[in-house]
Specification:
Blueprint (H helix, E strand, L loop, with lengths): L21 H6 L3 H6 L12 H11 L6 E6 L5 E5 H17 L7 E5 L4 H12 L3 E5 L5 H10 L2 E6 L1 H8 L11 E4 L10 E3 H7 L14 E7 L7 E6 L3 H10 L8 E4 L6 H13 L3 E5 L5 H10 L4 E4 L1 H10 L3 H4 L7 E4 L6 H10 L4 E5 L9 E2 L13 E2 L5 E8 L2 E4 L7 E6 L8 E2 L3 H5 L2 E2 L2 E10 L5 E6 L4 E3 L2 E3 L1 H9 L4 E11 L3 E10 L7 H15 L7 E4 L13 H9 L12
Parallel strand pairs: 1-11, 3-4, 3-5, 5-6, 6-7, 10-11, 10-12, 12-13, 13-14, 27-28
Antiparallel strand pairs: 1-2, 8-9, 9-20, 14-15, 15-16, 17-18, 17-19, 19-22, 21-22, 22-23, 24-25, 26-27
Bound molecules: adenosine monophosphate.
Length: 584
C-alpha cells in the first residue's frame, strides 16, 4: 500500500478552504481577532457559549435555518430551526431558574442523543450554570462517583435510566435535588419531575445574565491512572477555540450539513457535536442510533453530509464490513472527513480515499485541551499516520526532559518525548474540580504536559507514539485502570487485581484484568464469568473488563504497587524494561 503523503491542491477544492496559507495564519495569529469574529452578549455583558451558538444567529436573521436535524432510532426525523432552538433553550433556562439552580451550579445528564439533551446543555449555559454530560453506557458506580464529585444538583435523564442506574443511589447523593425525566408526562415525586411538563409551562423568553468569559461552563470527567475520575473544568471563553477549529480544521461554511458521530457523554460530542457547528451556523445532524455500517453510509448520502467528524474505531468497523460506500451510495456532497480519539492507522487514511472518495484527516486533542490542538488541514498535504500540525495560535513541543521544575524542549526532529502545549489557549481546562494538586502537577514552566508520547518531524507534523501512563483507550474512550481494579476488589473472591489495555485491532485496546484470588477460591470458568458480570453490572459496558486472567503472580514494586507496565509487557511478550524496583 502506498503511504506517501497525500497532496491536496486547494485550486481543485470545491469550496475555498478556510485555511490555505498555514504559515501566514500562524504568523499573523491573535486570539483577539478570533474574538472579534464572535458577537459577545448584547451591551457588552460578556461572552456566553449558548448565545454564540444559538441566539446570535436568530438576531442576525438566520432564525429559520435548520440548526438541528435529529434522526430517531426508528426512522423519524425532526428539524429544529435556530429560532426553535432559541425558544427551547430559553425554556430550559427558565426551568432552572424556577428550580432555583443558579450560576456555577452543576446540571448533569445521563441520556441518549435526544433533542431534550441539546436543549438542556445550551439552556444550562444560558443560565450560567455548569453542564456535565455522562455517557449513558456507564454503570451505577461511575455514575455515582461523578455525580458526587461534581456536586450535581440536577440530573436530566430518562425514566428507564433513572430506575435502572440512579434511583438506588439517591440516598447517598443528598446534594442531588432534582431529577428531570425527559420522557415522563407527569411528575413522579416532589423531586422527580417531568421535563416535558416543565418545558411546556416555562416562558419562551430568557435574558442571558452577564457572563464573564472565565465563568465555568462545562465539566468533563476523564480518567486517571490512580484515584477517582478527574473533573476537567472548562469556561465560556472555550468558544473561541471551538469557533477557530470549526473554521480551520473542520472547514465549516454556513451552508454545510455537518455530522459528528461522538456521543455528548464525551467531550467530542459537546465541543464538536454541539458547540462548534452551531457557532458556525451550520445544520448539525444528530443520529440517535448507534453504529451500524449500512445505516451510517446511507445517512451520509441521504442527508447530504458535507463534513463528517468520526473516530478510528468506527472507521475500522466500516473497513471490516466490506462495504464500498463510494460505489453503493452517492457521496458526492461529502467534502471533508476528520477523525479523532485514537491513532488513525495509515491504512484507514488510504481506505477513505478508495471507499469514501476522500482521505481521512486525523486530528488530536484531549478532554483537558477542550478543543482540537493538532490537525491535518483540508488544503494541506496529509501525512498518513500523522496527527498533523498545531492549530494557528497553539504552540506544541516535544519535551526532551523535565528537571528541577524546568522543561527542556527537543530541538531535533524525529525524537520521542512527551507532547506539551504552551499554556494560555482559551479552551484550556482551568482546573480539576476539588483537586488543585493534581491540576498543578500537569504544568511545568508554562507548559501543559499532555501525558502522550509523540515525535515531531522536520516539517512540523506530529506523530503519536503512545501514552506515557497506564490509561487505557478502548473504542476511543478513556478508562482508568484504578477504577476497574477498585470495582473488582469488591468481589469476595478477589485478593488483588491489575488492569491493563491489551492491544486489539478493532477497538484499539480492550480492558483486561489480571486477578489473584483469595485463599479458598479456585480459578474456574464459572468464576471468571461471574467476575465479568459483576464488573459489568457495577461499571457498565463502556468501562468493564472484557477479559480476565487468573494469576497468583502479580508483579509488584517493593512498596507493594502492582506494576501494570510489567503486566502489559508480559502480555505482549515484550522486554520487561527496568525492573529494579520489582519486589523479590
Ligand atoms: P480524551 O481526553 O478521552 O479525549 O482522550 C485523549 C487522549 O486520546 C489523548 O491524550 C490521546 O492519548 C488519545 N488521542 C486523541 N486523539 C488522538 C489521535 N488523533 N491519535 C492518537 N491518539 C489520540
Amino acid at each position: 500500500m502506498d503511504w506517501s503523503p497525500i497532496k491536496k491542491n486547494p485550486s481543485s477544492w470545491r469550496i475555498q478552504p478556510n485555511l490555505i496559507d498555514y504559515h501566514k495564519a500562524c504568523a499573523d495569529f491573535s486570539w483577539d481577532d478570533v474574538q472579534n469574529e464572535l458577537d459577545g452578549l448584547p451591551d457588552g455583558r460578556g461572552l456566553n457559549i449558548a448565545y454564540e451558538a444559538v441566539d446570535r444567529h436568530v438576531k442576525n436573521g438566520e432564525g429559520e435555518k435548520t440548526a438541528l436535524r435529529w434522526l430517531g432510532k426508528g426512522g423519524q426525523i425532526k428539524n429544529f430551526t435556530y429560532a426553535d432552538l432559541e425558544e427551547q433553550t430559553n425554556r430550559f433556562a427558565n426551568v432552572l431558574r424556577l428550580l432555583k439552580i443558579g450560576k456555577g451550579e452543576r446540571v448533569f445528564s445521563l441520556s441518549g442523543r435526544i433533542p431534550e439533551l441539546y436543549f438542556a446543555i445550551l439552556g444550562t449555559l444560558k443560565n450560567t450554570s455548569v453542564f456535565c454530560p455522562l455517557f449513558s453506557a456507564f454503570g451505577p458506580e461511575p455514575i455515582a462517583q461523578r455525580l458526587e464529585r461534581g456536586d450535581a444538583r440536577v440530573l436530566v435523564t430518562s425514566e428507564r435510566l433513572y430506575r435502572k442506574k440512579v434511583a438506588k443511589l439517591r440516598s447517598s447523593l443528598p446534594q442531588l435535588e432534582y431529577v428531570l425525566l425527559t420522557d415522563s408526562d407527569a411528575d413522579q415525586a416532589d423531586n422527580v419531575l417531568s421535563l416535558p411538563r416543565l418545558l411546556a409551562d416555562a416562558s419562551p423568553t430568557f435574558t442571558i445574565p452577564p457572563t464573564d468569559p472565565e465563568d465555568m461552563a462545562l465539566l468533563h470527567f476523564t480518567s486517571g491512572t490512580t484515584g477517582k475520575p478527574k473533573g476537567a473544568v472548562h469556561v465560556h471563553n472555550a468558544v473561541l477555540t471551538h469557533y477557530l477549529t470549526g473554521k480551520y480544521v473542520l472547514d465549516l461554511h454556513p451552508e454545510d450539513i455537518f455530522w459528528c458521530t461522538a456521543d455528548c457523554g464525551w467531550v467530542t460530542g459537546t465541543s464538536y457535536g454541539i458547540i462548534a457547528p452551531l457557532v458556525h451556523g451550520v445544520t448539525n445532524l444528530v443520529d440517535e442510533a448507534d453504529f451500524e455500517a449500512e445505516r451510517w453510509c446511507r445517512t451520509l448520502a441521504e442527508q447530504q453530509v458535507n463534513v463528517w467528524y468520526t473516530a478510528p474505531t468506527a472507521i475500522r468497523m466500516l473497513m471490516r464490513s466490506g462495504l464500498k460506500p463510494h460505489e453503493k451510495f452517492d457521496l458526492s456532497q461529502l467534502r471533508l472527513v476528520h477523525s479523532v480519539g485514537e491513532p488513525l492507522n495509515p491504512e484507514a487514511v488510504i481506505w477513505g480515499e478508495e471507499a469514501l472518495g476522500l482521505p481521512i484527516h486525523d486530528n488530536w486533542w484531549q478532554t483537558e485541551t477542550g478543543g482540537i490542538m493538532i490537525a491535518n488541514y483540508a488544503a494541506m498535504e496529509i501525512r498518513p499516520g500523522s496527527m498533523g500540525r498545531p492549530l494557528p495560535g497553539i504552540e506544541a513541543a516535544i519535551v526532551h526532559q523535565i528537571a528541577e521544575g524546568k522543561v527542556e524542549l527537543e530541538e531535533q526532529a524525529d525524537c520521542e518525548g512527551e507532547l506539551a502545549l504552551k499554556v494560555g489557549w482559551p479552551s484550556m481546562f482551568r482546573g480539576y474540580l476539588h483537586d488543585d494538586e493534581r491540576y498543578r502537577k500537569c504544568f511545568v514552566d508554562d507548559w501543559y504536559i499532555t501525558g502522550d508520547l509523540a515525535q515531531r518531524d522536520a516539517d512540523g507534523y506530529f506523530w503519536f507514539i503512545g501514552r506515557a501512563d497506564d490509561i487505557i483507550k478502548t473504542s476511543g474512550h478513556m478508562v482508568g485502570p484504578f477504577e476497574v481494579e477498585s470495582a473488582l476488589m469488591e468481589h469476595p473472591a478477589v485478593a488483588e487485581v491489575g488492569v491493563i489495555g491489551k492491544p486489539e485491532p478493532m477497538i484499539g485496546e480492550l480492558v483486561k484484568a489480571f486477578v489473584a484470588l483469595q485463599s479458598g477460591f479456585e480459578p474456574s470458568e464459572p468464576l471468571k464469568l461471574e467476575l465479568l458480570g459483576f464488573a459489568r453490572k457495577k461499571l457498565g459496558s463502556a468501562v468493564a473488563p472484557k477479559e480476565i486472567e487468573f494469576t497468583d503472580n502479580l508483579p509488584k514494586t517493593r512498596s507493594g504497587k502492582i506494576m501494570r507496565r510489567l503486566l502489559k509487557a508480559r502480555e505482549l511478550g515484550l522486554p520487561e524494561g527496568d525492573t529494579s524496583t520489582l519486589e523479590d
